[in-house]
Design goal:
- The chain is built from 18 helices and 15 strands.
- It is an alpha/beta fold.
- Strands 2-5-4-3-1-6 form a six-stranded mixed beta sheet. It has a six-stranded mixed beta sheet with strand order 7-8-9-10-11-12.
- Helix 1 crosses helix 3 (64-72), helix 7 (184-193) runs antiparallel to helix 8 (201-214) and helix 10 (251-269) packs parallel to helix 14.
- It is elongated and about 90 Å long.
- The two termini are 26 Å apart.
């Protein structure tokens, strides 16, 4: 439940330190005074430093790009306050041997910490739970001081924490015990992505995922940055074209456009297209060689002509030059409307599946939202002779249901580990939790659930990690990344 806090002061800290707190890169600050746990205040990014060392020696090299940006954004007249914090603990450091460990868990160099300790005799390390303000507060630059008064008091809430409670607790425990970071190499990689992520969408997504993995940002799922796949939304529209709607295009051009988008669709689903054969007048529209032979005809307009099945049969025979091979090949007609009785009868006799453009579009959207989710061999089983849209719809629903189960299981592991503060969960325990978790489909057997959990921990999926036990019940699993359901 959210609660409100009254804040009327701000703690002055060097601007880079404030930025590190807001990013979730650190959870601690070095005030000059001891701060009572429980005290709340805004975070004031000031143009101050220790005056002991230059920035290049004061901050760790991986943090220097952000340091320079933070100072360059400051003006001489006003500053922006973007967050407030609550002090959860104030650690007192006076042991020089502990400073290297502190440096590894923060943004300051060991040399800088040594200099500060020589000057002050103590280092106050305030553990801060940071929350974002709904709107930044602009205020005049204040000369100096530890705490400064805000121009107006704020009533703030804890509804937008930078880090979740569980992640903050883990980070705080590491800092109190001065345990080394688990993935220093990923921290270096993240720092290398700082500038690249401003112009490269893939680098930006990788940067966000690394931050979540390191516990530097909230545990909200990262929405994948997808390539431009706007063409997928045109599949049904192109298939349902009519001469009246395309006054600037001939029927031939409209049909060619649909052929192209259908070939793109099948290739996107995983078929290997024979591009040496491009269809056109008197030609076979579709020829796929892998993972199994598929021949097809595309018809754009109001309805599929009656002679399409005969046309596909004749053109397929001419193209493959082998009647037995054509008999074994999957035969597909893609076009709009409800097939006539004559077309349906011919399709059933010759083993041809008929699919509407809308159904093809749904299949391609499924593949786009969940890459490699469409199993072409399983799809083949649903391409029944005659109108096959209802059967393919069943397949799409089945795949979506399987994805929901997997997403539920990943979230279940994540929530359980956060609640119990455990590193992993034994499969025997996980099944018990799963049984009472209101899963999105009828309860899986222990064997089925174990198979799904192992699948999710495969290196090729990487949603969970697995520590193999002596048997299935002894396998242990831990959370790696979210399996996000598409909105």
């Amino acid at each position: 439940m959210s609660y409100s806090v009254f804040v009327d002061t701000a703690l002055q800290l060097p601007a880079p330190d404030v930025e590190a707190l807001i990013e979730g890169r650190v959870i601690a600050a070095m005030p000059r005074i001891f701060i009572e746990p429980g005290r709340s205040f805004a975070l004031y990014p000031a143009n101050i430093s220790s005056n002991l060392l230059p920035q290049e020696q004061y901050y760790r090299s991986s943090f220097l790009p952000i340091t320079k940006t933070s100072f360059s954004q400051l003006t001489s007249e006003t500053i922006l306050i973007k967050a407030w914090a609550k002090c959860e603990f104030c650690q007192i450091l006076n042991d020089p041997e502990s400073l290297e460990a502190v440096s590894q868990l923060t943004v300051w160099t060991t040399e800088a910490l040594q200099q500060i300790l020589q000057q002050r005799r103590y280092i106050f390390l305030a553990h801060l739970r940071v929350y974002l303000l709904p709107q930044p507060l602009e205020m005049p630059v204040h000369p100096s001081g530890n705490f400064v008064s805000l121009p107006k008091s704020l009533t703030v809430t804890d509804s937008t924490p930078v880090l979740s409670e569980s992640i903050f607790a883990k980070r705080r425990q590491k800092l109190e015990k001065l345990e080394p970071p688990e993935h220093p190499e990923l921290e270096e990689l993240q720092s290398a992505l700082v500038h690249l992520s401003t112009t490269n969408p893939k680098a930006k997504q990788l940067d966000a995922e690394i931050k979540i993995f390191l516990g530097w940002s909230s545990d909200k799922p990262v929405k994948p940055i997808k390539p431009d796949l706007a063409w997928i939304k045109t599949i049904a529209a192109l298939g349902n074209r009519t001469k009246e709607l395309d006054t600037d295009k001939s029927n031939y051009q409209a049909g060619t456009d649909f052929e192209i988008v259908v070939r793109d669709s099948l290739e996107f689903l995983g078929f290997t297209i024979d591009y040496a054969h491009k269809g056109g007048a008197g030609g076979l529209d579709l020829l796929c060689s892998k993972p199994y032979p598929l021949v097809g005809e595309c018809k754009a307009g109001k309805k599929i002509p009656n002679d399409t099945a005969v046309q596909l049969l004749n053109l397929g025979t001419l193209r493959l030059k082998d009647a037995e091979m054509l008999k074994k090949a999957t035969k597909l007609i893609i076009g709009p409307g409800v097939p006539t009785t004559q077309l349906m009868d011919a399709a059933k006799v010759h083993g041809m599946a008929i699919m509407n453009p809308e159904t093809l579009e749904k299949l391609v959207k499924l593949q786009s939202n969940y890459p490699n989710s469409v199993d072409l061999f399983k799809l083949k089983e649903y391409l029944k002779p005659g109108q096959s849209d209802d059967e393919v719809a069943k397949y799409i629903e089945q795949v979506e249901q399987e994805i929901k189960v997997r997403s539920h299981l990943v979230q279940l592991v994540k929530d359980y580990l956060e609640k119990t503060q455990s590193q992993n969960v034994r499969f025997g325990e996980l099944y018990g939790v799963y049984a009472y978790s209101n899963p999105p489909q009828p309860l899986l057997s222990r064997k089925q659930l174990h198979e799904v959990t192992v699948e999710l921990s495969s290196p090729l999926t990487g949603y969970l990690g697995r520590e193999k036990g002596n048997d299935a019940e002894g396998d242990r699993f831990y959370f790696l990344r979210d399996l996000r359901l598409d909105d």
